[in-house]
Design goal:
Blueprint lengths: L2 H7 L5 E2 L2 E2 L2 H14 L6 E2 H15 L9 H6 L6 E3 L15 H7 L2 E4 L1 H9 L3 H13 L5 H7 L3
Antiparallel strand pairs: 1-2, 3-5, 4-5
Helix pairs in contact: 2-7
């Protein structure tokens, strides 16, 4: 396992009483899927928010509405994600971005330059990481639908 794979698999996720927050793994699967389609590294927040809301609705894997602003902002703490111009975004006392600011400024976010370069230089790495994310974070009953949706 290379360093890039380790970073993806070591993200911190919220867990409580058998519940797991899938926000970060879903955003990463989405970003990896976009990169396999040759999308640029940084993706506008509003596109992520809109696309992931539709994906979550299609997959029906969350009991609550998906809030893209949590993983979009918090993945920065996992040394895997960058947000352009974070200085324009107000942050709550819990460390969360204000959704209104994200909607207003529509910053772009994406994996770090190092990770993006590694993904581009290794054709199979994105698929390998995606598969590992699915195996680690998602219920066995949901895996096939997620694989199909993200073309893994």
């Amino acid at each position: 396992m290379n360093d890039t794979e380790k970073v993806f698999l070591s993200i911190k996720i919220w867990r409580s009483k058998g519940q797991v927050a899938l926000h970060k793994p879903l955003l990463l699967l989405y970003a990896l899927w976009m990169y396999r389609q040759n999308h640029e590294r940084m993706i506008p927040y509003k596109k992520i928010d809109s696309d992931l809301a539709a994906i979550v609705q299609e997959l029906q894997i969350m009991s609550r509405p998906f809030r893209a602003y949590y993983p979009f902002w918090r993945l920065q703490n996992d040394d895997i994600w960058e947000v352009e111009h974070p200085e324009f975004i107000r942050v709550s006392s819990q460390g969360d971005a204000w959704k209104n600011d994200l909607d207003q400024f529509n910053p772009k976010g994406g994996v770090t330059v190092f990770i993006f370069t590694d993904l581009k230089n290794n054709n199979n790495l994105s698929l390998d990481i995606s598969e590992r994310i699915i195996q680690k974070f998602f219920d066995v009953n949901d895996r096939k639908n997620i694989q199909n949706l993200f073309k893994i």
